[in-house]
Amino acid sequence: MQPPPKKLLDQVRDAIRLKHYAYRTEETYVQWIRRYILFHNKRHPKEMGKAEIEAFLTHLAVEGQVAASTQNQALSALLFLYREVLNLDMMGIDAVRAKRPQYVPTVMTKQEALAVIHLCDGVYQLIVKLLYGSGLRLIEGLRLRVKDVDFAQQQILVRDGKGSKSRVTMLPSSVAVELRDHLVGVQRQHQRDLSRGFGAVPLPFALERKYPNADREWLWQYVFPASQVAKDPRNGLMCRHHLHESGVQKAVKQAARGAKLTKRIGCHTFRHSFATHLLESGYDIRTIQELLGHRDVKTTMIYTHVLNRGGKGVRSPLDD
């Protein structure tokens, strides 16, 4: 007797895992596909095509008033569904597109950045120091594993960053000693987990099958582990994941309020400030591009616009 066919969303999950996409991407794609199906009164996507996709995307832009990046995310999820799961070509989608705003990132002065860092506590302060000192995205910092930190060469290897790209960035010498002390405590916690029969961490891709015991080895542990052991949503095993983003985000917002800054400050502001301050110090933009992991130097060039704010660097006649 043949087993019943898998449900569509389970097929989507299998296809995403086959492509080694991140778990957050998996959850996001599944959510958009579910919304697409519900929008069309639970019709099966096989019965729908370009017209239904365009109607859904237009609805998001016109009635939902979503940002351009959100609409693009929904489109990517639906194209993945049709291309990778249903084996159907859906090129040439013509929908009302959300307008992409001209974006200039918020940047702190060095004094403002240090003030916010000073008002963060404990492990959150250490994480924010790395965001500012190494130019990491928040999720990149939280996903760091012990083996990714090279104290001898004072560098950090960021694995599978945005776009599944890896890169090397600096480890600030002012943070190295504090990070070493932090890892001593993390290692003690790991030893306690092992003695209780735990101590595993989720491994990327199929490494848990290739190296059955690697998930309990010290080198694979997260630099910033969660406070509690929890069930891995993909394999159901009890693991110690990394800290959740929300804790760091709340700490930064609270610290920014305490510093009485009038700018809108978030975790990503430290990455923007890292790039801008390097430019101010005279570093080459190609070097900064590599440190940030940008695919195109045009993305990095936005920080030159930040430097030129105030009439593109032109001196006001009022100041003469």
From TrEMBL:
Picking any one GO molecular function of the record gives:
DNA binding
The record's listing under Gene3D superfamilies reads: 1.10.150.130, Intergrase catalytic core
Q: Where is the Tyr recombinase domain?
A: 103-319
Q: Which Pfam families does the record associate with it?
A: Phage_int_SAM_4, Phage_integrase
Check the UniProt entry and state the signal peptide residues, or none: none
Q: Which residues form a coiled coil?
A: none
Whether Membrane counts among this entry's keywords is: no
**Keyword DNA-binding part of the UniProt annotation:** yes
Q: Which family does it belong to?
A: Belongs to the 'phage' integrase family.
Please report the name of this protein according to its UniProt entry: Integron integrase
